[in-house]
Amino acid sequence: MSTKPSDTFCMLPFSSLSTRNDGVLRICCNNYSYPKDTQGNELTVAGKSDIADLFNNSLHRDIRSSMLKGEKHTSCQRCWDNEKNGGRSFRHVWNDIYGDKHEEILSDVAADGTLNAPRFYYMDITFGNNCNLRCRMCNPVNSKLLIPEDLAIGITDKHFLSNMPVMDWYQQPQFMDIFRSVLPHLDRLNFLGGEPLFVREHMDLLAILVKEGRAHAIEIQYNTNLSQIPERLYDLWRHFKRVNVGVSVDGVGRVNEFIRYPSTWDNLIKNIHSIAHDYDGKNIALSIHSTIQIYNIMNWGEILQWVARDLGDLGFHRVPYALYVGRPEWFDACILPTEFKQRAYDKVMESIAKLPVHLFDHEENAKLSTVKSLFEHIRHTTPPDREKHWGKFLEISQGMDVFRGQRIQDELPELAGFFP
């Protein structure tokens, strides 16, 4: 088997362990297809102490085999679409990070995608649905605080909510067996949620890596709302090779408070300044992660300007990392009327033209290209079932307003004309 990667190669299906909130195995956090057993049940790491066999499931093998042949697997469509529009995809990011390991990754894989002895360089851990926010575009699988609201409004099927498993797989004793089994080659660890800084087990894992002398060889990264900073966090971070913190922000000021309810802008800014000034380690990289969705598409110019103007001097990347919201479909900006999407595109391009691009490095320029490609995609795409999803958006938004005591007309005036 050739150790030269094909044009469609991605390191993630070959050497990363990724889990959904409930412990279900997945290809990566950007892929919506999930491995299943011969009975059609989703494969889970919950209660397992050995995951080597799980990693050779039919979906992982099929994706790896396709990539070995230079084919584009359909489950990776989000990356293919991003690349088609000129953006830097998730695949590009991870291939760049592990470019020096491609030959090693491909040295032990059969033509059918089977790995004889999986080596895990990267692991992302999604800590259930324990979160302290109720973001509008989120769901009970990612934040259990949304369950009462979902039931009241009727967003999610009541049977599903009533039978949703307790997402405590990472609290089971077997989890530590899995964690230790990937440690021999692990050099990067990603914490997701829920809200990882809200979860005690996250701190426990950091302490174990420090105690066992592994921290210095491992990069850790976060997607966090940064609504709180746990005691001892900075002391633990100092031991790691690198700490990459992605702070989730979906608007400036009241727009962010409206979307990422019940967060407050003042608290977010306080914690941003704390992490920039109070943490004195030299091993940190800071960035803003922002979704592109129906609620904030008109406000993305303000996000870009705020990050470049206010955060660059605090050590943050000057361009946010853009995350496209395609599910649920009623929060996908593509369902907006064509003329509205064109206005949003014109507005963000006007803001981009004012950015200090002469200060941007290669990565910041790549992030900006992704923003442009996603807005191009949105303005040129109209889903075939647009009317159904548009009606659902209006219904759910009004239901959330009533439940939360908010008015979208007051907070997002650009969308006011769509509501009574």
Strand order of the largest sheet: 2-1-3-4-5-6-7-8
Q: Tell me the fraction of residues in β-strands, as a range.
A: 5-15%
Distance between the termini: 62 Å
Mean pLDDT: 92
Helices and strands in order, then pairings?
Blueprint: H1 12-15, E1 16-19, E2 25-26, H2 58-68, H3 77-84, H4 90-97, H5 102-106, E3 122-126, H6 147-153, H7 158-162, H8 173-182, E4 188-192, H9 200-211, E5 219-224, H10 233-237, E6 242-248, H11 254-259, H12 265-277, E7 284-292, H13 300-311, E8 321-324, H14 338-352, H15 362-380, H16 386-404, H17 408-411
Parallel strand pairs: 1-3, 3-4, 4-5, 5-6, 6-7, 7-8
Antiparallel strand pairs: 1-2
Helix pairs in contact: 13-14, 14-15
Any overview of this molecule?
The chain is α/β, with parallel strands linked by helices and 420 residues long. It is built from 17 helices and eight strands. The protein has an eight-stranded mixed beta sheet with strand order 2-1-3-4-5-6-7-8.
Short description:
The longest helix is centred in the last third of the chain and has 19 residues, at 362-380. The protein is built from 17 helices and eight strands. It has helices at 12-15, 58-68, 77-84, 90-97, 102-106, 147-153, 158-162, 173-182, 200-211, 233-237, 254-259, 265-277, 300-311, 338-352, 362-380, 386-404, 408-411; strands spanning 16-19, 25-26, 122-126, 188-192, 219-224, 242-248, 284-292, 321-324.
Keywords:
17 helices; 420 residues; eight-stranded mixed β-sheet
